[in-house]
């Protein structure tokens, strides 16, 4: 539809525009240097002005052009302040024939190009005509009518048989969106033209030279003499109004049956939006003045068009912002809406038309409306994660993103993906169905080429019969405005997601804090209960040696459970390490033989149920060995554990080097614990043999009760060492007559603590309330004080403040243990975890006073 130069396709983006160095007949060209000496002329100047080209070249211009015209040309030259400017003069005499000429002047490679073509006397002011044309444009209700009215106005002014408004697509192809033509010549409205009809070089030229006219496709071009200058360069005619046309384009027009053509560029927002394309089926030559009026009209048309498009975009984006605010407000009051694909689909598709929505958050997905199959949706998300991060992505052909997309194109052929998190990303994806359509082309869009020495070259299409192409596997593309709206919605959704994430994190922190508080409270109560039970047992024992032995046995089992409880509650009722259990039992009941207990195995964790069960089992094995087995003499115990092929934990206890072993003569409760606890409580297996050389016990704990800890690098560390403990071996002989104030509100626990301290040799005074403690301090100065933190509905911190003022040492005791909450001024104080034991008492006293009871 427009002219283009013969350009090698292989160098389409690099080769400069090839200029022909010739003009169309009917006008002439004079090129002058800045000192007004004629440098080049068109060869037809003899016929038009009566001057010999050989005579003109190298002569002063004023010898052949009226002085008044030279004056006016110099004035116009001063107006050329920017590149690509062209100045005009209308209805001026040049020679002596009386013929009036319309003149254009512009700069080209340091030379002044003066072009003239026959004209008429200057008519009325053209601004009135343009004003009337624009008035009709402004009254059009929509863009379709706006395009149509623009074509009608140009045809009315120039008189061509057909005037089309030709709009470029992003792909480079073009479509006729409006048309005004005389009756009986058919219609091109709605036809599409391939991008190759107007190559890149021609589009660049349309941005510089806004009006291109071809008077007669059969006219012979007029060369410019000389063809090249002294430096061997051709003259640059890019801005010339008379510039000749590529023979390929002339052939193109002839193939269409067109005798003359004119095109006017429509520049919107600095880009070539389209053209007014005019066809005439015989030679036609509108005057330069009329063409200039149309150029001005096209400028005004483009400005109005840009304003309308921007207004449409602004209104659309304002609606989208309102929807974005609606989304933000709705989710703020009900965060579950973000997980509702139907609601999310409704609100998003009201801003961006789509047939379905898919939501992918944290590996979970949900759909609303039409969407691809589940596995294909996963493949789409994986493909999106391979693209640039943090940007909205759209395509009208999912088949270009993943293979096999044609299989579900009837459900989803195009998509717009809105990432709403960082990598790995979550998405809200809008889908559009396949848009099966017949695209009407003005001839086969696959333009033929011919081959020569330099490879493939463009050739003009010979057939312009309507050619239909069935388009499948594609959806209606998402527009630039819709993508901008998607970016706005993305920012809103990310804001929502981040806020919800912050709220969820805060809720998790609060929940964790509540859970920790509840676990600590439960732990405190259980420890107090265990302390009360131990105290009752100890305080209730008679003098009978058998009963004392029984009380000691029961006390040990309760203590074993208490230690197990401490281990599993220290990690919020979670799995605890098996190694810690063995060390604790060894320290409590085989303190003088700890180095004889050798444990070997990869670190493993037991869940709370298994941990409590194994605490009793190991306790019975340790106490039995210290009484009758290898730990009663100079022998050793070897403990090994490992995971079998099913993940079960195999635990082996082997005694060596002890006195000869014989099977027990009666089956006591301890034997029952060893033999039946693991099978009964955990669903595992247990066996024990009493070989002469040493007791051997094997246990199989099911894999569901076992887990593996991770170190920083994420791998387990194998343990092979004797069991050790931070707890001291204490002696109960004398405490130098030290006086101790014990503040404890539970009588049974107080009696138990008194017994422990008195066995250390201390003198103990007990107070059950802060008031009683203060009364005691009014008259006495104890060597040490032990303060239970929680005293019913009171706290002992006031007593601690007074002890600190008096300079008296003290430590706290609590069922909360290390989780006890202390005021800032007492944060450094020691806290003993209940129930009281000889070991934790001795360790606290040593830390506080520098020595332990002896």
Describe the structure in brief:
With 854 residues, the protein is of the alpha+beta class. Helix content is 37%, strand content 23%.
Q: What descriptors fit this protein?
A:
Heat Shock Protein 90; 854 residues; single chain; Beta-Lactamase; alpha+beta; disordered N terminus; seven-stranded antiparallel sheet; 37% helix
CATH fold name of the domain at 541-722, please? Heat Shock Protein 90
Please state the average pLDDT score.
Answer: 79
Low-confidence blocks of residues: 1-18, 451-459, 461-467, 712-734
Strand order of the largest sheet: 1-11-3-2-6-5-4
User: Main sheet, how many strands, which sense, barrel?
Assistant: 7 strands, antiparallel
What's the CATH class of the domain at 541-722, please?
Alpha Beta
**Quick one: how many beta strands?**
38
Helix coverage percent of residues? Answer: 25-40%
CATH superfamily of the domain at 541-722: Histidine kinase-like ATPase, C-terminal domain
User: What would CATH call the architecture of the domain at 541-722?
Assistant: 2-Layer Sandwich
Structure report:
By secondary structure, the protein is α+β, with helices and mostly antiparallel strands. Among the domains are: 22-118, PAS domain (Beta-Lactamase), CATH 3.30.450.20; 320-436 and 472-505, 2-Layer Sandwich (Beta-Lactamase), CATH 3.30.450; 541-722, Heat Shock Protein 90 (2-Layer Sandwich), CATH 3.30.565.10; 739-849, Rossmann fold (3-Layer(aba) Sandwich). 37% of the residues lie in helices and 23% in strands. The strands form nine sheets. Strands 1-11-3-2-6-5-4 form a seven-stranded antiparallel β-sheet, with helices on one face. The longest helix is centred in the middle third of the chain and has 61 residues, at 480-540. The protein is built from 19 helices and 38 strands. The N and C termini lie far apart (111 Å).
């Amino acid at each position: 539809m427009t002219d283009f130069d013969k350009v090698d396709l292989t160098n389409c983006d690099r080769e400069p525009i090839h200029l022909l160095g010739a003009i169309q007949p009917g006008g002439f060209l004079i090129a002058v240097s800045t000192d007004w000496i004629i440098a080049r002329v068109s060869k037809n100047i003899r016929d038009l002005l009566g001057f010999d080209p050989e005579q003109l070249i190298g002569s002063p211009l004023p010898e052949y052009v009226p002085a008044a015209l030279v004056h006016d040309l110099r004035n116009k030259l001063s107006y050329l302040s920017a590149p690509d400017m062209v100045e005009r003069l209308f209805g001026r005499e040049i020679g002596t024939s009386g013929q009036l000429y319309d003149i254009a002047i512009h700069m080209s490679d340091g030379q002044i190009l003066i072009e003239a073509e026959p004209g008429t006397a200057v008519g009325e002011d053209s601004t009135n005509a343009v004003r009337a044309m624009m008035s009709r444009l402004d009254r059009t209700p929509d863009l379709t009518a706006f395009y149509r009215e623009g074509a009608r106005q140009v045809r009315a002014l120039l008189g061509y048989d057909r005037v089309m408004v030709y709009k470029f697509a992003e792909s480079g192809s073009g479509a006729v969106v409006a048309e005004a033509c005389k009756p009986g010549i058919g219609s091109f409205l709605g036809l599409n033209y391939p991008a190759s009809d107007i190559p890149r070089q021609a589009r660049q030229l349309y941005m510089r030279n806004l009006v291109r006219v071809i008077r007669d496709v059969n006219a012979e071009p007029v060369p410019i003499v000389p063809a090249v200058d002294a430096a061997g360069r051709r003259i640059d005619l890019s801005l010339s109004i008379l510039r000749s046309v590529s023979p390929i384009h002339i052939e193109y027009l002839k193939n269409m049956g067109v005798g003359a053509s004119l095109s006017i560029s429509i520049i919107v927002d600095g880009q070539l939006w389209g053209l007014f394309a005019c066809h005439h089926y015989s030679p036609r030559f509108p005057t330069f003045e009329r063409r200039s009026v149309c150029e001005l009209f096209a400028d005004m048309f483009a400005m109005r068009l840009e304003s309308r498009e921007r207004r449409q975009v602004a209104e659309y984006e304002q609606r989208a912002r309102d929807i974005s605010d609606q989304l933000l407000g709705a989710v703020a009051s009900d965060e579950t809406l973000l997980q509702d694909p139907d609601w999310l689909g409704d609100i998003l598709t009201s801003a961006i038309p789509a047939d379905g929505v898919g939501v992918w958050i944290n590996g979970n997905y949900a759909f609303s409306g039409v969407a691809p199959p589940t596995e294909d949706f996963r493949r789409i998300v994986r493909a999106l994660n391979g693209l640039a991060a943090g940007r909205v992505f759209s395509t009208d052909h999912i088949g270009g993103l993943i293979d096999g997309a044609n299989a579900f194109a009837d459900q989803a052929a195009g998509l717009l993906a809105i990432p709403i998190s960082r990598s790995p990303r979550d998405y809200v994806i809008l889908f559009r169905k396949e848009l099966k359509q017949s695209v009407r082309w003005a001839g086969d869009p696959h333009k033929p080429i011919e081959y020569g020495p330099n490879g493939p070259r463009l050739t003009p299409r010979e057939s312009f019969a309507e050619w239909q192409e069935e388009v499948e596997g594609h959806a209606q593309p998402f527009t630039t405005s819709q993508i901008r709206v998607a970016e706005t919605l993305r920012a809103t959704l990310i804001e929502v997601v981040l806020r919800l994430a912050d709220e969820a994190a805060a809720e998790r922190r609060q929940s964790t804090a509540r859970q920790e508080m509840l676990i600590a409270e439960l732990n405190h109560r259980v420890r107090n209960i265990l302390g009360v039970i131990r105290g009752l047992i100890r305080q209730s024992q008679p003098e009978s040696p058998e009963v004392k032995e029984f009380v000691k046995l029961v006390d040990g089992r309760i203590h074993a459970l208490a230690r197990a409880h401490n281990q599993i509650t220290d990690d919020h009722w979670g799995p605890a390490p098996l190694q810690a259990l063995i060390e604790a039992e060894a320290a409590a009941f085989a303190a003088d033989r700890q180095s004889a207990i050798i444990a070997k195995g990869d670190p493993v964790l037991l869940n709370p149920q298994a941990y409590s069960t194994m605490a009793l089992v190991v306790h019975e094995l340790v106490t039995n060995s210290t009484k009758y087995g290898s730990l009663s003499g100079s022998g050793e115990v070897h403990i090994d554990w490992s995971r079998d092929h099913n993940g079960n934990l195999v635990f082996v206890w082997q005694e060596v080097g002890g006195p000869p072993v014989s099977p027990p003569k009666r089956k006591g409760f301890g034997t029952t614990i060893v033999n039946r606890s693991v099978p009964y409580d955990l669903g595992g297996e247990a066996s024990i043999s009493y070989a002469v050389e040493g007791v051997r016990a094997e246990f199989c704990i099911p894999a569901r009760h076992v887990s593996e800890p991770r170190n920083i690098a994420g791998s387990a560390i194998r343990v092979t060492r004797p069991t050790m403990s931070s707890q001291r071996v204490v002696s109960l002989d004398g405490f130098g007559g030290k006086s101790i104030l014990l503040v404890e509100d539970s009588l049974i626990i107080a009696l138990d603590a008194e017994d422990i301290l008195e066995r250390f040799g201390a003198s103990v005074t007990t107070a059950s309330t802060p008031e009683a403690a203060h009364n005691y301090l009014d008259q006495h100065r104890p060597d040490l004080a032990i303060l239970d933190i929680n005293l019913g509905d009171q706290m002992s911190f006031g007593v601690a403040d007074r002890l600190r003022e008096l300079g008296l040492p003290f430590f706290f005791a609590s069922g909360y243990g290390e989780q006890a909450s202390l005021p800032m001024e007492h944060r450094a104080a020691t806290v003993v975890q209940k129930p009281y034991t000889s070991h934790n008492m001795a360790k606290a006293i040593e830390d506080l006073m520098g020595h332990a009871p002896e």
